[in-house]
Amino acid sequence: MGKLQRIDRVQQALVKQTKKQLEPDEHRLEGVTAIEISQLLSLARNTVSEELNKLVSEDSAIKIKSRPVLFFSKEELETYYHCSFDTDVSFKSLDDLVAYLEKKNPVEIQQDQAQNQKPFSEVIGFEGSLKASIDKLKAAVLYPPNGLNVLLGGESGVGKTSIAESLHRYYEEYSGREIPFIYFNCSEYFNNPELLTSHLFGYKKGSFTGALEDKPGLIEYADQGFLFLDEVHRLSNEGQEKLFTLLDKGYFSRMGEADTKRHAEVRFIFATTEDFSEIFLQTFLRRIPVSLLLPSVKERPVQEKIELVVKFFQDESRKIKQDLIIAHQVIEQLVFKDYVGNVGEMKSEIQFICAQGYLKQIEKQSKELLIDSSLLISEEQFEKDARDQIALNELLNGQNLHIKADNLRSVTNYFVPRETINDAFYDFLLKEFSNLKNSNIPQKEVSAILQKKIDQLFDMRLFEPAQKNQSLRTIDEQFENRMNELTQYISELTGISLQPNLKEVLGNHIYSTLLFMDIPNDDFYLYSSQLMLGRLENYDISKNIVEKVSELFSVELPKTEITYYGLFLRKLKQTDSKYHRNDDCGVIVVAHGGTTATSMAEYSNILFSSNLLKAVNMPIHQTVEETLERVKNIIRINDYKKLILLVDIGSLVYFGNLISEEFGIDVLLVKNINLLSLLEVSREVIYESTDFSHLLPVLNKKGHLSTLCKKGHFFDSKVLIVSCMTGLGTALKIEKLIVDVFQEEILQNIRILTLDNSEVQDINRIHQHIRTDEKLVGIVGTVHTEVPDIPFISLEELFSEKGVERLLLLFGYDMSVKENRELREQVAKRYIHGLSLKAIINHITVLNPERLSIEVSQIYDDICQQLDIASNEKVMLRFLIHTCCTVERLVINKEYNTSEYNLSYKDLPNEASVIKMAFRSLEVSYNVQFSPLEIKYVYELLFG
User: Fold this and answer.
1) b/e string for 834-860 if b means 16 or more Cβ within 10 A?
2) I need a labelling partner for 327 at 20 to 30 A (CA). Which of 168, 482, 536, 708 fits?
3) What is the C-alpha to C-alpha distance for residues 727 and 759, in angstroms, rounded to an integer?
């Protein structure tokens, strides 16, 4: 879609939203944000913001410079309020807009704003380089009872007098009354100490020749106010000492009246261009608690230099009542010039330039007062720092500056708003940082989350060229030369030539970074400094590039830049025709569900523009064996020499060793797969390496459970879990039965693991008990486990005629082999004997097994009769084993913890009461008590 069409869409949306706010039943003048329109039109917020600002510059939209920035359709507001907007009117808030719409004159609004400005706001840098100094001055002047004396230092012309006057106005506003402010330059009388003393302290009639009457000194005129002593280094030691009494005691004497003490409350502001310690007595310096050194123009940030230039032109425009048009080249020359006399020299030069322009205007009889490069005192070319040049271009948009004599706009209102960083990397990081910081998440976690979000952002829009590249078109030749040197350096380091689109992306990033660096944000740097991608193979290259950028552009970059160039190098590898992924390495995703694996693989393939990932779904009706066979077919068709296998849960985690064993290849197995781990694997394989020694530590470091199945290193042991709902006691008896029947010759590579029933309901808890060189082959128990895909054998099946064969299959014996069938017959003979009722009951070691078995058999018959249940041999066998083991456990006080079950008999079916009554004889005979939970188990055993 073309640029014209997009801006039209944005304008239509702005008109629609403005109209909506002006409807009679709504009428809420709230404004429209760029985010709201971006959501309405499904466009990027940066793009919408760009178009809205263009509408403002084209006089089609009104802008409110609040936080967030608000916009209105100009035409809709003018139509509704029957007014006309002046294109130069600036609105800082909705209140100012409302005042304008109520027919208040724009100049009056600006005058109100000027009157309501904070003290010191007329001082350039009051919220920048001078902020710390001004804060100290405020504290000094307000400190009770009479404030603290202040010493201001700095080169000639840095603005010491202006600061002193602003401090006076600040205290006047604070106190709500007029306060004296007396200025005195000590250099005028430094050769005559007595005359200097008489001016400061006053004199008595007749105290010296010419003293014809009593005269008060400046100290008395400054009583209850300020005395500003400029060039105070001209004050002799004697003069300094004469001030001690006043500074210490608050009183003084006029010249010639030593017996009279006069009191005065004076706030002294001293100013000097000299070194404090070399000029003043230490006794004098100790009496001045606050000493400040003001920066020179050279030490000021570039934005403040620009503000100073604009302010002085603005002052001259109002003074001579003439509109000015100042050429961009003039501002550039004035901003980058080295001033010996600092602010004072800059102001004088601008006055003289305006005077020359005024003369030209008279001679040409022109209406406009044009300030162009022909009026410059010197056309000397000064070296321009790249960052400062960028800031100047951004703030003034490379255009001439128009200043109206009757306009009281603040200096910063002449600047183009810098709303966002024109770079996806920092634009993204700043937003995410702001959101995460406000969420009270710990610093380390913020860094980790930011890192993952950066990875997700990679290749989506991070390295897309900007649709509008105006910034690079306005930069000077020096910047372009440095960029050429940088791209050549990167090519030499990597052996890869940068494509034009990546050069453009890199140039925009450096441009935006240099601009961004001019906006200090210590908190952001604190967090972002932990985003280094030290895991990258090309970390050293990234670091070298950052050092090269720092050298070329004379700026110290944050560690965040190492992260950026690490990602940039990934992209560079991707575009290099010499770099190819190892296609012998396959990547297969296997997941439960009809479309789960396909959906994740498709998303990753589309994102990375590849067909890297293959998918195998496992619908609920599909067996593990069928799923494994589908995976094997993919390997056969593609002839993979190694495989990255990503699986979710269940027995799929054992596919790695099975495949490695059958195909004789290394398999990197990633368990508990999700979309994030899938994207990270894809990114590493595409942009980094298919070397498993690289991938394995990277994935594990990111928290993705990964193991390497090496060819020729298969399972040394298999694990069979035995579990019972009645606890470990019964499970141990089943284990003994299996050991007795199968004996050591078969179980030499089998570990039987007995676990509580609660331990086998979660695959992650099961894995805690199994070593990496072991394979879980199945679970034997009384209650079916909920863990998917793990073979389960119930006691009913275990004690059937198929029990032997089922276990042998789990142990890995192929029944199609003759010798294995013969082994099955041998084991079956022992198995039949071991499953006799007497043999099973003999597992009871404390109680009399024969007596107990008779009692339990009778109870089983009674329950079947009362509940009309058909007697079943298999169910009876389970009932006998379970009940006998339970009674023995209760007798020897091996209590089964039921505290986590809040269960009562009223929660059980009606049949449970019959079971409870049938067990009453056992409770009396053995002095035990069956809990509701035990009765519930028996009920489920009979009716399950």
Assistant:
1) bbeeeebbebbeebebeebbebbbebb
2) 482
3) 11
**Cross-strand pairs, 152:** 271, 292
State the Cα–Cα distance between residues 727 and 798, nearest whole angstrom. 18
Say if residue 270's pLDDT is above 90: yes
Instruction: Read off the amino acid at residue 433.
Output: F
Reference 679, options 602, 596, 617, 571; nearest CA is 602
Q: For residue 589, give the nearest of 666, 703, 673, 668 by alpha carbon.
A: 673
What distance in Å separates the CA atoms of residue 162 and residue 804, rounded to the nearest whole number? Answer: 100
Local structure of 259: helix, strand or coil: coil
Helix (H) or strand (E) holding 216: strand 215-216
Say which amino acid occupies 509: H
Would you tell me how many other CB atoms lie within 10 Å of the CB of residue 783? 19
Alpha carbon distance, N-terminus to C-terminus of the chain: 65
Please calculate the CA angle 413-419-424 and round it to the nearest 5 degrees. Answer: 155
Q: From CA 111, how far away is CA 97, in angstroms rounded? A: 15
Q: Tell me the per-residue pLDDT of 679-736, one tens digit each, with 9 for 90 and over.
A: 888 877 876 677 887 788 778 777 788 888 776 544 557 888 888 765 566 677 777 7
Element (H, E) at 315: helix 302-320
Amino acid, res. 177:
R
Residue 167 CA, chain-centre distance (Å), reads 40
Is the pLDDT higher at 73 or at 610? Answer: 73
Q: How far is Cα 75 from Cα 645, in angstroms, rounded to an integer? A: 61
Q: CA 915, CA 939: separation in Å to the nearest integer?
A: 8
pLDDT score, position 349: 92
Q: How many CB atoms lie within 10 A of CB 134?
A: 20
Which amino acid type is present at position 133? S
Separation CA 601–CA 607 (nearest Å)? 10
Chain centroid to CA 678: 22
Q: Does 592 qualify as catalytic in the annotation?
A: yes
CA distance 580 to 573: 9
256, 210 contact by CB (below 8 A):
no
Of the candidates 168, 328, 592, 704, the residue annotated as catalytic is 592
pLDDT the model gives residue 160: 92
Quick one: which of 198, 188, 291 has its CA closest to 252?
198
Residue 593 is given by DSSP the state B
Distance of alpha carbon 165 from alpha carbon 295, whole angstroms: 18
pLDDT above 90 for 293: yes
Mean pLDDT calculated for residue range 351-375: 85
Handedness of CA 868, 874, 880, 883 (dihedral sign): negative
